[in-house]
Write a structure and sequence with these properties.
The protein has 375 residues and is of the alpha+beta class. The protein is built from ten helices and seven strands.
Length: 375
């Protein structure tokens, strides 16, 4: 008898679909619980305990053909059930946290056996001794032996242990995800702080060189250059937020250009252009200055027909920044530099999948274009 390929294919398709649905449910559930606060998780655990109390009471009623009423659920044995349920769940979570994570499996097995005994003993004490002494109630019939009672409650104990293990897994998964997220955030913050520490000395070194040239030449522009530097350093020191108003960053660029103009005796061919409203946009600080520094470092400003063009476009949620300058072929950068590589890394950290950086040259002209979502 030959197998039915079509039927086999349908069964495989159904199995794969079920697996996909299970994985999707697990992923959504894990994501949902991971986003919960401690108070929300406590509320969920409370609902679970209540459902177990009511569920086991329902099973008992069905087992002994007793009527299911609200009075039954709220009676004294419901209270005792809450006590041993919570105690068992808390202790189960503790032993799995202590022995399961450290792979002490023999100690874990002994603790599980001990928890079963603890559950049976605690429930027997609460419902067959304490409740009988205080209210005259017994949960089991008076003629039931302790051996039967113990065997009957092994099942219930294992159910609570399984639930406690699931709670442990959920808590551990949530804690691991939160710890991973915290570590990623701390790593990201540390890297950004390191990148910023590179930017500030790099910029300060270049600017002090410029002012040194003015002082050395005894230029009357030196005092004004110092004032401009003070404004720039104020921005560098106090704008340490993750993002700043785009207008502040643009003013920073203009101050830098003004400071560069003071270095030169001739008028520099520079064109600044702004289109759109920059007031409602934010940007990471010290981002645009890198492109301006590169333009001054590698640019040729002797040709008035080839000015440094700096353009800022603001359109909706998009910000576009462009620079274009003629290349100075006589300049060789022997200092290395952290500029563009630094900026690229900061963009990757703060604008993941939300930026586009294009750098191009035709041998005579150098252009850079940065497009990003500023908000």
């Amino acid at each position: 008898m030959s197998a039915n390929p079509q039927g086999y294919g349908q069964r495989r398709s159904q199995i794969n679909k079920a697996r996909l649905q299970t994985r999707l449910f697990y992923s959504v559930t894990k994501s949902y619980f991971s986003s919960m606060t401690k108070k929300q998780l406590a509320a969920v655990y409370g609902v679970v305990v209540f459902m177990m109390v009511w569920g086991f009471d329902l099973l008992g009623a069905l087992k002994f053909n007793e009527p299911i009423t609200l009075d039954r659920t709220l009676r004294v044995f419901a209270v005792t059930q809450v006590i041993y349920s919570v105690a068992t769940l808390v202790l189960t979570r503790y032993i799995f946290h202590k022995y399961f994570l450290s792979k002490q499996y023999w100690q874990l097995l002994a603790s599980v056996v001990g928890m079963v005994i603890f559950f049976i003993a605690l429930r027997y004490f609460l419902e067959e001794i304490l409740a009988a002494a205080l209210f005259g109630y017994h949960n089991y019939s008076r003629g039931v032996s302790f051996a039967y009672y113990a065997l009957d409650n092994v099942y219930y104990a294992l159910v609570y242990l399984a639930l406690g293990f699931l709670i442990f897994l959920l808590d551990n998964q949530i804690a691991s995800q939160k710890m991973q997220a915290l570590l990623m955030q701390k790593t990201r913050e540390a890297e950004l702080q390191f990148l910023r520490s590179q930017i500030n000395p790099h910029f300060l070194f270049n600017t002090l060189n410029n002012i040194y040239s003015l002082v050395y030449e005894k230029s009357p522009k030196a005092p004004e250059a110092v004032l401009k530097l003070a404004e720039l350093m104020r921005y560098l020191l106090y704008e340490q937020k993750e993002k700043v108003p785009l207008t502040r960053e643009w003013q920073y660029v203009q101050n830098f250009i003004d400071l560069q103009r003071l270095r030169f005796s001739q008028e520099l061919p520079i064109e600044l252009q702004v289109e759109g409203s920059a007031e409602r946009h934010e940007i990471i600080p010290h981002l645009l200055i890198c492109f301006i520094e590169n333009a001054f470092k590698h640019g040729d400003f002797k040709d008035a027909s080839a000015p440094l063009r700096v353009k800022l476009y603001c359109n909706g949620r998009t910000v576009k920044f462009e620079t274009e300058n003629k290349i100075n072929h006589h300049y060789k950068d022997e200092t290395g530099g952290v500029g563009l590589e630094n900026i690229k890394r900061r963009l990757e950290l703060l604008y993941p999948n939300c930026y586009d950086l294009q750098i191009a040259t035709d041998g005579n002209t150098y252009t850079s274009q940065l497009t990003l979502n500023a908000n």
